[in-house]
Design goal:
The longest helix is centred in the middle third of the chain and has 32 residues. Helix content is 56%, strand content 11%. Helix 9 runs antiparallel to helix 10, helix 10 packs antiparallel against helix 14 and helix 12 packs across helix 14. The radius of gyration is 25 Å and the shape is globular. The protein is α+β, with helices and mostly antiparallel strands. The protein has a domain of 293 residues: Cytochrome P450 (Cytochrome p450). The structure holds protoporphyrin IX containing FE (HEM). Protoporphyrin IX containing FE (HEM) binds next to helix 14 and helix 19. The site of protoporphyrin IX containing FE (HEM) has 27 residues, from helix 14 and helix 19.
Length: 477
């Protein structure tokens, strides 16, 4: 009986296929989809995608398809059909299209009510609140504090060491800055208490969202609860300090969020404040860490670039005339250093791209992408293309002089309504960190051929061991 039903179904499908094919509707429908393959049933093209992630951060997965299919192609990942836009025109289209951003369910669950779970008008309102703190005019007054924290960090963790593993040290320094600028947590013990849960949240955010004990996702959930408990104490204390006048409404992100209302005249709930602060720490931490780590690596590999950076910072120190901490104005003078950082972000983008989702069919370049598909843009679509960046593998900060790259070709921070809101903060912190290292040491790579692996962000396999030579000694030599 079962065999009969099965045979009848197969026959039915075959007939339907030929009827559709002869009427032209099947060929018309598939002709309008972008070229590409959905791979295997259920798992789609995940095996090749995952293998490519470990090997080179998806670059080979994307490049192979770009060569085979062109600048837009379809694939199937994480159980979804995905259209990949792989050109500067594609970036322009997606950044300006009326589409929503999309984050994996695991990230949305672990970062609860933060900006990343908001769409449309709700996202605009929350983003504007956060930008009160993250826009350049507001960040200006935090340069001195960031500088003094990084300076203390270098003095306590780097100075008097001949060799360090830069990656984990930078990680700690960046976390200390974020704890201070976001919530004035300056005490190392308290920072360490927060560091554990934050790391676990980070590990849980790109995972299959099934809450099974022992999995990174489950650990992320427990960490979220711990972090909320710890941060609620910080919020309660701050509320008291604000009403007694011992804290200022502008001293950090937490005060900004507690003391301001949004465009709708509403205050953020404590839960939303905590989630948004956690989200900013998580979104900004590893990305900035990758940027600083690789900047040090590229400068060590290119002594003529290092020499220009050193010159720039020594000049700034001279012009500071004994002033202790950096100011916003000094950051603006770090022009060559920022070009070197941009070139680092081009060659080793900490974010490989992101996803959007369309709520209705959209047309692009003669193809139709059906409603509900995920839409992907990728930094590699342009960052390493000869047509936009001649000799793309060469480290050349000079590319960013003058007008710089063509629009939509250099996109480390994405673009459009969901562009990274932390880009100015990242620029400030990268330059402050670089300044403090450059003014203290010359550094060499212990292993100039250290392997890079991706998880999914690029990381030096041994943690970037560096030999340090204090600058004062170097001058004496
Ligand atoms: C070098 C460092 C950084 C890089 C390369 C980077 C890159 C990116 C990229 C590519 C996106 C997606 C943009 C899009 O889809 O169009 C993004 C989103 C985001 N970034 Fe960054 N980021 C960095 C640092 C930071 C920092 C320091 C913060 C926080 C202070 C931050 C907060 C965020 C947030 C909250 C989002 C989500 C925005 C939204 O959904 O509307 N990022 N980032």
């Amino acid at each position: 009986m079962d065999i009969l039903v099965l045979s009848a179904s197969v026959l039915g499908f075959v007939l339907l296929f030929y009827i559709l094919k002869s009427s032209g509707s099947l060929s018309k429908a598939s002709a309008t989809l972008p070229p590409g393959s959905f791979g295997w049933p259920v798992i789609g093209e995940m095996p090749e995608f995952v293998a490519s992630m470990w090997a080179n951060g998806y670059q080979s997965f994307l490049e192979n398809r770009n060569k085979r299919y062109g600048t837009i192609f379809k694939t199937s990942l994480f159980g979804y059909p995905v259209a990949v836009f792989y050109s500067a025109q594609g970036n322009r289209f997606l950044f300006n299209a009326d589409v929503q951003s999309y984050f994996p369910a695991s990230a949305m669950n672990l970062l609860g009510n933060s900006l990343i779970s908001k769409v449309g008008e709700d996202a605009r309102v929350v983003r504007k609140m956060l930008m009160n703190f993250l826009r350049p005019q507001a960040l200006q007054k935090f340069v001195g504090r960031a500088d003094s924290i990084v300076n203390d960090h270098i003095n306590s963790k780097w100075i008097e060491k001949q060799q360090v593993k830069a990656f984990s040290l930078i990680k700690g320094g960046l976390f200390a800055v974020a704890c201070s600028l976001f919530m004035s947590v300056g005490d190392e013990v308290q920072q360490n208490e927060l560091h554990g849960p934050f790391s676990d949240i980070l590990k849980g955010i790109v995972q299959i969202p099934v809450d099974i004990p022992g999995t990174p996702y489950h650990k992320g959930f427990i960490a979220r609860k711990q972090a909320h408990k710890l941060m609620q104490k910080v919020v309660d204390r701050r509320r008291k300090d604000l009403s007694s006048g011992s804290a200022s409404p502008e001293q950090d992100l937490l005060s900004f969020l507690l003391c301001n209302v949004d465009d709708r005249g509403q205050k953020m709930s404590d839960e939303d404040i905590i989630d948004n602060i956690m989200m900013l720490v998580v979104a900004g931490h590893e990305t900035t860490l990758v940027a600083v780590t690789f900047l040090l690596r590229y400068l060590a590999l290119h002594p003529h670039c290092y020499a220009q950076v050193l010159q720039e910072h020594l000049q700034i120190i001279t012009e500071m005339e004994g002033r202790q901490d950096l100011e916003w104005n000094d950051i603006q003078k770090m022009k060559y250093s920022w070009r070197a950082a941009q070139e680092t972000l081009r060659l080793q983008p900490p974010s490989l791209g992101s996803l959007r989702v369309c709520s209705e069919d959209i047309s692009y370049d003669g193809f139709v992408i059906p409603k509900g598909w995920k839409l992907c843009w990728a930094t590699y679509s342009t960052h390493k293309k000869e047509e936009y960046f001649p000799e793309p593998e060469k480290f050349d900060p000079g590319r960013f002089e003058g007008k710089g790259p063509e629009p939509y070709t250099f996109v480390p921070f994405g673009g459009g309504r969901r562009m990274c809101p932390g880009n100015e903060y990242a620029r400030m912190i990268i330059l402050v960190f670089l300044h403090n290292i450059v003014k203290s040491f010359k550094w060499d790579l212990v292993d100039a051929n250290e392997k890079i692996f991706c998880n999914p962000l690029p990381l030096p396999a041994q943690g970037l061991p560096l030999r340090l030579l204090p600058l004062s000694q170097q001058k004496a030599v």
